[in-house]
Design a protein that fits this description.
The complex is a heterodimer of chains A (448) and B (364).
Chain A (H helix, E strand, L loop, with lengths): L2 H5 L14 H9 L4 H7 L10 H9 L2 H4 L3 H4 L37 E2 L18 E2 L13 E6 L5 E4 H6 L3 E8 L16 H5 L2 E10 H7 L9 E6 L6 E5 H6 L2 E6 L2 E2 L9 E3 L12 E7 L6 H4 L4 E2 L5 E3 L7 E6 L4 E3 L3 E10 L5 E7 L7 E2 L1 E2 L9 E9 L4 E9 L8 H8 L12 E4 L5 E5 L2
Parallel strand pairs in A: 3-12
Antiparallel strand pairs in A: 1-2, 3-4, 5-6, 6-9, 7-8, 7-12, 9-10, 9-11, 13-14, 15-17, 17-21, 18-19, 18-22, 20-21, 22-23, 23-24
Helix pairs in contact in A: 2-3
Chain B lengths: L2 H27 L7 E2 L2 H7 L14 E3 H11 L1 H4 L18 H6 L18 H4 L3 H11 L10 H14 L8 E3 L3 H5 L8 E3 L29 E2 L21 E3 L10 H8 L13 H9 L2 H4 L11 H7 L6 H11 L18 H12 L4
Antiparallel strand pairs in B: 2-3
Helix pairs in contact in B: 3-8, 7-8, 14-15
C-alpha cells in the first residue's frame, strides 16, 4: 500500500465532479471553450447564476463558506412544531424501510427491511425497525389490552397495562432477527444490498417486566411445567412455544422500546422479548401466556420456521439465532468515490451470548485482521465493529467473520450447506462477501 | 407455672413471632405479588383456544368434507384456489404427497435430489400434525376475518383439505372422536426432528468453522454474482443511500460506470427522494383499514384488479362514480373474472364515495 494512498482522505473529490451529474459534465465538456462551459466546469451549478463574479468567488473558495447561507442569516423554526414529535431531516428520506419486490404476495403478510447501509452504532431507530406481519398491524387501545396467564399455574390471572407497568421493570438492549433473515442467499446471490440481505435484524432497548416475575406471581407449577405458549391478540394470534428455562431466564414482557412505548408495527402496547431467539417468538400484541408440559406445534413451528435438511426431515423448534456479522459500509449497492482510506464498519451479534471478536478480510478470506469492537459489547445485542482500510483501486472482496463468547466461529456458506443442504430457508448465518470493483461499485457475491 | 414451662412458652412465642416476621419479610420482597386479578372461567375459555398435537384444547364437534367444501368455496378459495393448489396469492396448501407417503409417514419428495412432485413445497408436504391445521384455521382464518368459523366448520374445512390430499375419503366426517386416527395417516408425520442444540441457548452449533488468520484456504472462484437483470429489481439504489458520507448508492437506472471517475460523476447526481404523501393519502388509509388492499393492489391484481387497472378500464364511463360506489358497496363478479368480491356493509356511504371519487380520478 503506497504512502500516497494512505494520505488521501477518502472520496473528497474536487469540483466539477462533485457538483455535476454525468449529463451536465458532458455539456460542460462540449462547451469547454465557451464562457458558460468554463463556469459550469468550475462548479457554479445553476446556469442562471454563472457570472464573472461567481467565478471569482469560486477561485477564492467555496460558495457555501464565502456566501453566508439563509440559515446563518435568518430566523429558524420555533419549538414544538406540529405535531410536537420530531422527525428525521428531509435530507435523510432515502433511508426507509423497504419491501423486497416479489418476496411476499400481499402487503399485510409481508416484511419490510431495515436500511442497515445507513445506520450507526447499535440502536435501530424505532421508525426504521424492520417489520414482519402475518396478518397486518393494529394500533390497539392500550386501556383495553389485557394479558392473561393460564394453564399450569396456581392462579390464572389477568393484567391490565396499568397493572403491568406498576411491576418492577428492567431495561435491556437486545437484537431481534427474523429466522428468515438472509434466506434469499441460501442458494445464489439474489438481492442487491445489505438492506435486503440482512435487513431483518434490529436492535433496541426494551423495557418491561421479566416474564419470570409474572410466572412466579401466578405460582407456575415448578415440577411439571416444561414450556410456555405465547399468543398475540391480532388476527393471526401468533403462537410460539418457549421452554420454561428460557421463560424463567431473560424473557421480558415489554411495553417500551428505545425510551418510548412500542410502535404499533412492533406490537404496541405489549410484546414478548425473547433474547437470542428468532423474531417470530417475540409475539406482538401479547395477550396470553399459557404454561404447559408439551410443545404446541403451532403453524409457525410446524410449517414455517423449520429447517429442511438434506435427508428430507425438518428440524423443528430451532429458534437460536447463531453468531453472525455483516459489513454495512462499504456494502453492496454502494459506490466508493475515490481510492484511499475507508472506515470499514459493520454489525455482529449472537443469540448464544456476547461477541468476542470480529475479523475482517479484504482479499476474499485469505488473510484476516481483527476489527475494533465499539462499546457497549452486550450479550444478545448488536455489536458495532470498525477497521481501517486503504483501497488501492483494485478489486477487493470484503468479508467479516464473528466469534462469540462460546468460541463459535461464524461459518462460510459452503460449510453451512454441507450440513444443512440447499433446501433450507431459515437460520442462514454465513459470512457475507462484498466485491469492490475497480469502478468503485460494490456488489453482492458468494465466495468461500 | 414453673419457671421452666414459662421459658418454653416464651420460646414457642418467640419462634412463632419470628415465623411471622419471616412471612412478612417474604411479602415485602415481592409486594407486587397481588397485582392483577384472577381470570374468570369464561375469560379463560374465550381466549384459551390453542390445540396441541395431543389434541388437548380441541372442542367437541364434527364436520363433513362436503360442509368443508361449501365453506371453502365461499371463504377460502379466492386466495387458496378451489383445490388448495393456489400459487396465485398464497403458497399452495395441498399437493406433492403420495399414497406411499401416507403409508410411511415420510414425504419422499423432500429428500434432497428426489424427483419433485409439486412446483414448490406445499403445506401438506411439511406439516406433521393435524392439530396444527385445525388450530391455525380456527385462530387465523379466513385471513381478513379470522376466528369467525364455528368449530364444526373448522372440522369441515380441515376434512376437505385432508380429502384433497387423499388422506381421508370424500364422504368423511372429521370429528374430535376420530381426529387421532387421522393423525396416523398424515403424510409427513414422521418427518420432524427435534434438534436440541438449536433450541437451547447453551447448545453447540452443528456447523464448524475455524478462525484462520493468514494464508487461509480459499476457493479463488466467485461462485455467484447478482444477475445483470436484477441490477434495478429493487429500484434505484442511489435513492436508498444517504447523499453524504464516504459512499453513495449506485445509480442502478444506468449500466455500471466504466471507471471510478465515471462512478464519482454519477454518484454526484445523488438526490434525496421527496417524501411520500399528499393527495390520495387519506383514501389509501381508508382502503387499508377496510381490508381492500388485501385483495387489490394499487397497480397490480392480487385477488381482484389493481385500482389503476379499474381506473383505466372505466375511464370516460358515464356515471362512473355512482357505478363504482355500487360496486364497492355491493361487490360483484364477472367484470374481472369469476372470483366474487364480497359486499362491504361495514363501509359508510361517505367512505365509499371517497374511494369511488379517487378511483374515478385515476387512482393515483
Amino acid at each position: 500500500m503506497s504512502k500516497d494512498l494512505s494520505d488521501v482522505i477518502g472520496r473528497v473529490i474536487p469540483a466539477p465532479e462533485n457538483h455535476l451529474s454525468a449529463d451536465q459534465l458532458e455539456v460542460a465538456r462540449k462547451a469547454r471553450r465557451s464562457f458558460m462551459g468554463k463556469a459550469l466546469a468550475m462548479g457554479a451549478g445553476a446556469v442562471a447564476s454563472t457570472t464573472a463574479a461567481t467565478q471569482a468567488l469560486a477561485a477564492e473558495g467555496e460558495d457555501v463558506i464565502l456566501k453566508l447561507p439563509e440559515h446563518s442569516t435568518g430566523l429558524g423554526m420555533p419549538v414544538a412544531m406540529d405535531p410536537g414529535y420530531g422527525k428525521p431531516s428531509k435530507w435523510e428520506s432515502n433511508l426507509r424501510r423497504r419491501q423486497s419486490p416479489g418476496l411476499t404476495r400481499v402487503d399485510a403478510a409481508s416484511v419490510s427491511f431495515t436500511p442497515l447501509q445507513g445506520l450507526f452504532g447499535i440502536i435501530t431507530p424505532s421508525g426504521l425497525h424492520f417489520e414482519r406481519h402475518h396478518q397486518g398491524w393494529w394500533d390497539i387501545d392500550p386501556s383495553k389490552h389485557r394479558l392473561m396467564i393460564n394453564g399450569m399455574v396456581k392462579r390464572q390471572r389477568v393484567f391490565t397495562m396499568d397493572d403491568l407497568m406498576r411491576l418492577p421493570s428492567v431495561s435491556r438492549i437486545h437484537f431481534i432477527e427474523c429466522g428468515a433473515n438472509t434466506a434469499t442467499e441460501w442458494g445464489n446471490v439474489a438481492v442487491p444490498t445489505v438492506q435486503y440481505t440482512h435487513g431483518m435484524v434490529s436492535c433496541s432497548e426494551f423495557t418491561g417486566v421479566l416474564l419470570s416475575t409474572l410466572l412466579e406471581m401466578c405460582g407456575y407449577d415448578k415440577k411439571a411445567a416444561k414450556y410456555v405458549l405465547a399468543e398475540g391478540a391480532d388476527g393471526s394470534s401468533m403462537t410460539r412455544t418457549i421452554d420454561i428455562e428460557r421463560a424463567m431466564d431473560d424473557c421480558i414482557v415489554a411495553w417500551a422500546m428505545n425510551g418510548e412505548m412500542l410502535r404499533p408495527e412492533n406490537g404496541y402496547p405489549l410484546r414478548l422479548v425473547v433474547p437470542g431467539i428468532q423474531g417470530v417468538s417475540w409475539v406482538k400484541y401479547l395477550r396470553r401466556i399459557e404454561v404447559g408440559d408439551q410443545k404446541w406445534a403451532a403453524k409457525d413451528e410446524a410449517v414455517h420456521y423449520i429447517d429442511h435438511m438434506p435427508d428430507g426431515t425438518h428440524r423443528q423448534y430451532t429458534g437460536i439465532q447463531e453468531c453472525k456479522s455483516v459489513i454495512t459500509t462499504p456494502s453492496a449497492g454502494q459506490t466508493l468515490l475515490d481510492k484511499g482510506y475507508y472506515n470499514v464498519t459493520g454489525l455482529a451479534w449472537s443469540g448464544r451470548g456476547a461477541i468476542k471478536r470480529v475479523d475482517v478480510s479484504v482479499d476474499g478470506g485469505r488473510n484476516w485482521r481483527t476489527a475494533r469492537l465499539e462499546g457497549p459489547v452486550l450479550p444478545k445485542a448488536l455489536t458495532r465493529f470498525n477497521i481501517d482500510w486503504v483501497w488501492d483501486g483494485k478489486p477487493a472482496i470484503l468479508q467479516a467473520r464473528a466469534i462469540d463468547s462460546t468460541g463459535y466461529v461464524q461459518p462460510k456458506i459452503n460449510q453451512l450447506r454441507a450440513v444443512r443442504g440447499t433446501k433450507s430457508v431459515y437460520h442462514q448465518n454465513a459470512i457475507q462477501s462484498w466485491l469492490v470493483q475497480e469502478n468503485g461499485e460494490v456488489s453482492n457475491v458468494q465466495v468461500y | 407455672m414453673t419457671f421452666l414451662t414459662k421459658l418454653s412458652r416464651h420460646t414457642a412465642i418467640a419462634a412463632a413471632l419470628s415465623a411471622l416476621a419471616l412471612g412478612a419479610a417474604h411479602a415485602q420482597n415481592t409486594p407486587w405479588n397481588n397485582m392483577g386479578r384472577d381470570a374468570t372461567p369464561a375469560e379463560v375459555k374465550a381466549w384459551d383456544i390453542d390445540v396441541r398435537p395431543d389434541f388437548k384444547g380441541l372442542p367437541k364437534g364434527a364436520g363433513s368434507v362436503s360442509l368443508g367444501e361449501t365453506v371453502w368455496e365461499a371463504k377460502c378459495a379466492s386466495c387458496h384456489g378451489s383445490f388448495g393448489e393456489s400459487n396465485e396469492v398464497f403458497t399452495p396448501i395441498i399437493g406433492g404427497t403420495t399414497k406411499k407417503d401416507i403409508e410411511t409417514g415420510r414425504v419422499a419428495a423432500l429428500v434432497e435430489g428426489a424427483p419433485a412432485t409439486a412446483p414448490q413445497k406445499t403445506t401438506i408436504m411439511k406439516v406433521a400434525t393435524v392439530s396444527t391445521l385445525w388450530d391455525y384455521i380456527n385462530r387465523a382464518m379466513p385471513w381478513n376475518n379470522p376466528k369467525t368459523l364455528t368449530a364444526d366448520e373448522v372440522f369441515g374445512v380441515t376434512a376437505y383439505l385432508l380429502s384433497l390430499a387423499e388422506i381421508v375419503p370424500a364422504d368423511f366426517v372429521l370429528s374430535d372422536q376420530n381426529i387421532a386416527e387421522v393423525q396416523k395417516r398424515m403424510p409427513n408425520r414422521n418427518g420432524m426432528v427435534f434438534y436440541e442444540p438449536m433450541w437451547k441457548v447453551n447448545g453447540k452449533g452443528d456447523v464448524k468453522n475455524v478462525a484462520c488468520m493468514k494464508d487461509c484456504a480459499v476457493d479463488p472462484k466467485v461462485h455467484s454474482f447478482l444477475p445483470d437483470f436484477a441490477r434495478d429489481a429493487h429500484g434505484n439504489i442511489q435513492q436508498q443511500n444517504r447523499v453524504i458520507g464516504p459512499v453513495r448508492g449506485a445509480d442502478t437506472t444506468k449500466p455500471p460506470p466504466k471507471s471510478l471517475k465515471d462512478a464519482g460523476a454519477s454518484a454526484a447526481g445523488a438526490t434525496v427522494v421527496a417524501q411520500a404523501g399528499g393527495a390520495g393519502g387519506d383514501v389509501k388509509n381508508l382502503l387499508a383499514s377496510n381490508s381492500c388492499t388485501a385483495c387489490h393492489g394499487l397497480k397490480n391484481k392480487i385477488v381482484g384488479p389493481g385500482f389503476n387497472e379499474i381506473a383505466a378500464k372505466h375511464k370516460g364511463k358515464p356515471n362512473l362514480e355512482a357505478y363504482l360506489i355500487e360496486k364497492i358497496q355491493q361487490g360483484g363478479s364477472g367484470v374481472w373474472g369469476a372470483v366474487p368480491m364480497p359486499p362491504q356493509p361495514q363501509l359508510s356511504a361517505a367512505d365509499a364515495k371517497s374511494m369511488a371519487q379517487w378511483i374515478a380520478a385515476g387512482a393515483q
